[in-house]
Amino acid sequence: MESNQSWVTEFILVGFQVSEDMEILLFWIFFLLYIFSLLANGIILGLIWFDPRLHTPMYFFLSHLAIIDISYPSSNVPNLLKNLVQHNKTISFVSCIVQMTLCLTIASTECMILVAMSYDRYVAICHPLQYTIIMNWRRCTVLAVTSWACGFSLVLLHLILFLRLPFCGPQEVNHFFCETLSVLKLACADTRINTIILCAIGVFVLVGPLSLMLVSYTNILWVILKSQSKEGRKKAFSTCSSHMCVVGLYFGIAMMIYMVPDSSQREEEQKILFLFYSLFNPLLNPVIYSLRNVQVKDAFYRVLRQKRAT
Fold first, then answer.
1. Which neighbouring-strand residues pair with 12?
2. pLDDT at 281 over 90
3. What gap in Å lies between CA 193 and CA 188, rounded to an integer?
4. Spatial distance between the Cα atoms of 221 and 127, rounded to a whole number of angstroms
5. How far apart are CA 99 and CA 162, in angstroms?
6. In what order do the strands lie in the sheet with 10-13?
7. Is the pLDDT of residue 2 over 50?
8. Do the Cβ atoms of 61 and 103 come closer than 8 Å?
9. Distance CA 303, CA 249 (A)
10. d(Cα 190, Cα 167) in Å, to the nearest integer?
11. pLDDT at position 263 over 60
């Protein structure tokens, strides 16, 4: 490295290259989606927390999913909104590292939580008589803690390798937040090891969990098809099919981003895909997993009646 090169202390987030009028329009669209996702997940989290009837393993994992769906957009959307209304789109090096670490950790943890949820549904449908024994609170806690620990430990490995890289310019990150692959392109050193580790992490948190979930839902569908009750079969199939749609979208898009060879033509497409994770997925999860659920609706109505009574 030449002595006259200076180290980068901040990055410039390019974001979406549109007119100022379009930036204002995008600001209001993204702002409303962000607020709605916070409200939806906040309501779900509050209902699960305060209603004793929802203190079951399924809603225990849903509460973790709600926390994730609040945390992930909160790690990058506020900065995106700020950049849409300000001409100064810089972010400090430290803030960039924090943002990148949070996004990777939360996304990795969500993959693990989705596996735990699919296992919970597998036990509930395929082994209903043993459900309370198998899905006891100790096992649920172990699954949740393991999910978060895996997310933190995998990202810690990537972070250690990332911090050894020198950044001496350029400063422009072609994204609306400090996305890992976009930032790695700015390093003034060989990043092959980092890319390999990211690919390995992708296999561990995407391919592995997806395979386990496919096994769970395949067994669930097999049991549903053998069920004699048409009403029970319809209800279980409706629940599992909606869950599989969410899983397919989440893991399919993640694999397209991290496991398909990168090219400059795909950079704009990746921004759109990350918007799905930041704005639409946190709204989709409460609708699919919770708001369509009769128990959640009943809990919501009970809370409303209690408020009116007081």
1. 90, 172
2. no
3. 14
4. 13
5. 14
6. 90-92, 10-13, 172-173
7. no
8. no
9. 33
10. 11
11. no
